[in-house]
Amino acid sequence: MVVSPPFLSHARPLSVLAGALRTAGAEVHYACAPAFASLAREAGVGFVPLAVTRNANTGVAESTRQDAAEAARLRAFLAATREGAVAALLAQARHRRADLLADPEGVLEALRAVDRRLRPDWYVVDQLNHSVTLALHCLGLRWATLCPGHPDQLPSAPGAYFGLPSAWPDALRPGPDRLAGLRAAVRRDDEELTARFAAFAARHAPGRPAPGRAFALGSAHAVVHPYPALPWRPTPAEGPRRLFAGHLAAPPEPLDARWDERVRRLRAHGGRLVLVAFGTFLSARDDVLRTVVRGLVEGTGDVSVVVAAGDRVAALADLAGERVVVARSVPQTALLEHVDAMAHHGGGNSFTECLRAGVPALVLPFSSDQFAVARDAERSGAGVVLDPNAVTVSAVPAALARATADAGRFAGLTREVRERGPGWAAARLTAAMGSPGRDGGVDPGRPGR
Fold first, then answer.
1. pLDDT reading at 445 higher than 50
2. Domain Erythromycin biosynthesis protein CIII-like C-terminal: where (predicted)?
């Protein structure tokens, strides 16, 4: 049973992993909100409707149907990104307190019912599905953790906290006072959620071990990282198997006729092609999209651009022309096979998809783990990092020149990412989880796990 939160950037990789587990010989069911049933069909697995949070994102966050409170939170978050990195992270910390354990009793009962009906041997759960992880712990069920994005999203050291970037790119290092305030906020979140986990487990599973530090509660058996095994990452002395799969993307499909024609036309008017995409939430920052596109087109004579504008197509329509295509959404993995560079927001999927395609990047991180991902892109030579709130039209061409000067410098990392992927992850995950059986075997959740 693969359980996903209702966010497309998480749901799609989990569905690809579900399909790979099916190919490896498992009977697989994919559980997510009803709007994501098509992903189960694409993966060739069973579907179980399961709501695990009030929030959602089916592809473009602003146009996803959400209640008024969730829509207001999204607007507040986007406003905070305009103030800078720490403001965005603090806004996420405030919102996190209201959402991390949304309806834990309902999730527990829903999982109990599903488990009684289907009797899975083990589960795969997204690390950000905190209510699901807690329910699995309370029910004594066997699970593997998928840690989306940067590996430090699952903190393993006493001084590490969810919501506090483990590393910062050179262009966005906050001052010590700002960092101290952020650390205090995320530490408070850690303590509050840990207390809520303990109280919930004491009520609903008094015979089970205490879950321990909430944000660090993961599988005792295996953690899948759709991320490369970068040489500077620390190796934990103990704990579950860490499976660095490189990526969890389906093989890129050929461009359809419409996009193939667009690419040929853009190439005819500009020899190089750059994809600009900030993901499903941050496409709302059309001011930064505009600056980057203008810098690419006005500052160079040989660059054409495809920009994924989400709900801001109308706001950016004036940029469209012989060298610019403005689209609501784009076939990103397919386009990466045809572009010379990409400008993205530091999302884990975009980072690893660029690595797999061997495409250098301009990285403009706004929030979450994007700062740590951006630092890895910078350190590996796979990207040049710009501050999205300080970038200027004139700075973009020079950044592109630096990013594309020697794309071969991260060729070894590209080979590693290509050699792994969903099939690699499925085979090793199956081996790590052991023989079929419902023996529990869930980690008691001591700090550091």
1. no
2. 303-408
